[in-house]
Amino acid sequence: MEETYLIDTHCWLNWHINPDRLSPAQFQVMEDVENDIYFSTVSAWEINIKYRLEQIKLPSLPFRYIPDRINKDGLKVLAFSLEHSLRIENLPPHHNDPFDRLIIAQAQIGDMTILTNDKRFELYDVKIIT
User: Fold this and answer.
1) Is the pLDDT of residue 2 over 70?
2) Domain range enclosing 100
3) Can you tell me whether residue 98 is helix, strand or coil?
4) Which of 8, 20, 46, 90 would suit a FRET pair with 97, their CA atoms being 20 to 30 Å apart?
5) Confidence band for 31, pLDDT divided at 50, 70 and 90
């Protein structure tokens, strides 16, 4: 069975800005062009907010940088849906970050493995690579 991956926002940013923060397992998955790796629209939202609040710096504005990197990396985009938003209700309160909870819900519904550096994801019924 083919495995699909959903990349967490911070892991995606690290891939491009701080690749030394990736584990060898994460780097291997991300560099293998045969893997189906998805970038969530939730991550674009989170990046935009953090950029506007000056919590992160990017080489160019998010509306240019994000699509450019997605295309260069050959990623697929996963839109956030009503089904994803309703799944949040069923998640235990292990994690307070709303963006991470949205990513977890998407991964559960899509039966995806999350590429993340956040160990709290282990508390959920979801596969991860840290």
Assistant:
1) no
2) 4-129
3) helix
4) 20
5) confident
